[in-house]
């Protein structure tokens, strides 16, 4: 902008005048949104998480998560699980268990290998190709499990009361996969533009933040190679307001 220009002169070689322009430099910006609306971001895994409250059986829950480019959540370490347990999931009254306890389908299945004297089996990650290494401990068997089923589906039980949540109290259930339950989806962090749209890899966009004049490239869910525009203030207007979502768009507040 004209008001930011500071012109200076110095003598170059041969006596000619060299002119320098010092203009405002864009300051580093911390981008606050790496997940779509309704999702919770965890820096440790560069992932987004969301609880869906509409009760679905396990297989329908898998498909719902896939439609939003995610999968039923699995965990890589205790720190990630503690992050999940500490969240407020905006849970409504319409839930499928007691109000103080929340159970969600997650991306594990319990395979029963022996039914003789007691149930024996082991956890597996429910979808192929996963590199997850965290597997839950022995489960509590849900009341709806069938004697004919050899594969049960994993539920993570969280607690509604803050003191219980922050102490990390939780349980793992192996339940009949056709029971209906809320579920927890996980997806990679993504680029979100200033109008809350999801941006695909490699595309230009204006990141969500307080500068509508940034243009960045989406790379691995992060804005990179950002270019900033500097706007001249509107001519003939003493008082004005910048549009928070449109670059160089002003509203004149003069009478």
TrEMBL record:
<dbReference type="InterPro" id="IPR016186">
    <property type="entry name" value="C-type_lectin-like/link_sf"/>
</dbReference>
<dbReference type="InterPro" id="IPR042378">
    <property type="entry name" value="IDD"/>
</dbReference>
<dbReference type="InterPro" id="IPR001007">
    <property type="entry name" value="VWF_dom"/>
</dbReference>
<dbReference type="InterPro" id="IPR001304">
    <property type="entry name" value="C-type_lectin-like"/>
</dbReference>
<dbReference type="GO" id="GO:0016020">
    <property type="term" value="C:membrane"/>
</dbReference>
<dbReference type="InterPro" id="IPR016187">
    <property type="entry name" value="CTDL_fold"/>
</dbReference>
<dbReference type="Pfam" id="PF00059">
    <property type="entry name" value="Lectin_C"/>
</dbReference>
<protein>
    <submittedName>
        <fullName>IDD protein</fullName>
    </submittedName>
</protein>
<feature type="domain" description="C-type lectin">
    <location>
        <begin position="44"/>
        <end position="186"/>
    </location>
</feature>
